[in-house]
Amino acid sequence: MSVSLIAGLGNPGRDYAGTRHNLGFVVVDALARAEGLSWQHEARFDSEVARWNVRPGVTRWLVKPQTFMNESGRALRALLAFHKLPPESLTVAYDDFTIDLGLVKVSVRGSAGGHNGLASVLAHVGEGFARYRLGIGVPRPPAMDIADFVLSSFPPSEQSRIDQLLPTYVDGLRRLLDNGPAHAMNLLNRREQNDSHQA
Q1: Catalytic residues
Q2: Residues 6+ apart with CB under 8 A from 145
Q3: Which fold has domain 2-196?
Q4: Domain extents in the chain
Q5: How far apart are CA 122 and CA 174, in angstroms?
Q6: pLDDT band at residue 50, thresholds of 50, 70 and 90?
Q7: Pairing of strands 58-65, 90-96
Q8: Taking residues 167-181, what's their average pLDDT?
Q9: CB hemisphere CA count around 122 (13 angstroms)
């Protein structure tokens, strides 16, 4: 039996819905809807989980930690331990303010880059998991506090773009899950460079 976890990072509760920091939640929710999956609250893991039976012998669990962003790793460590899975079985989708809005980048190594949720996952789980990094744009104005920026809501024009891009986000996540990080990096990271005209 092949089992893997796909986690979206975010903050629970109505106050945080629609904020940049919850884009990971939004994308795994979209994947769950596309697959007709239902969420169940698992108190022992402090998480919302949805079971995805991809095909016989292959099960994926979608996860939304309900610990608040800064403790995301605690919930994911408990889930990995329960399923007896290594970090390599985990994929984490989360917002990234170093990437332009609408673009996605896949990586496996590197620092948390100022993202407290990712820092928690690294602290509790360790290295080796795949990172599905969803661009939310850089803070405007540049002097804006990062915490204020990521906890702000998308303005209507940006929210409309996110809504339009959701199928693309889900497709990229599927490619990562089906083909692995190396394939996804080659496809999605190259597309990011082409779209943003960066070397």
Answers
A1: 21
A2: 139
A3: Rossmann fold (3.40.50)
A4: 2-196
A5: 23
A6: very high
A7: unpaired
A8: 95
A9: 13
- From CA 121, how far away is CA 87, in angstroms rounded? 10
At 82-133, the pLDDT tens digits run 999 999 999 999 999 999 999 999 999 989 988 999 999 999 999 999 999 9
Mean pLDDT of all residues belonging to the chain: 92
Residue 194 pLDDT > 60, yes or no? Answer: no
| Placement of tokens 């819905």 in the chain | 17
Higher pLDDT, 107 or 189: 107
- DSSP per residue, the chain: -EEEEEEE----SGGGTTBGGGHHHHHHHHHHHHHT---EEEGGGTEEEEEEEEETTEEEEEEEE-S-GGGHHHHHHHHHHHHT--GGGEEEEEEETTS-TT-EEEESSS--TT-HHHHHHHHHH-S--EEEEEE----SSTTS-HHHHHTSBPPHHHHHHHHHHHHHHHHHHHHHHHH-HHHHIIIIIHHHHHHHT--
Task: Name residue 8's amino acid.
Answer: G
Tell me the chain's radius of gyration from C-alpha atoms: 16
The token pair at 20 is 């940049």
pLDDT band at 196 (very low <50, low <70, confident <90, very high): very low
Distance, in Å, from the CA atom of 97 to the CA atom of 103, rounded to the nearest integer, reads 11
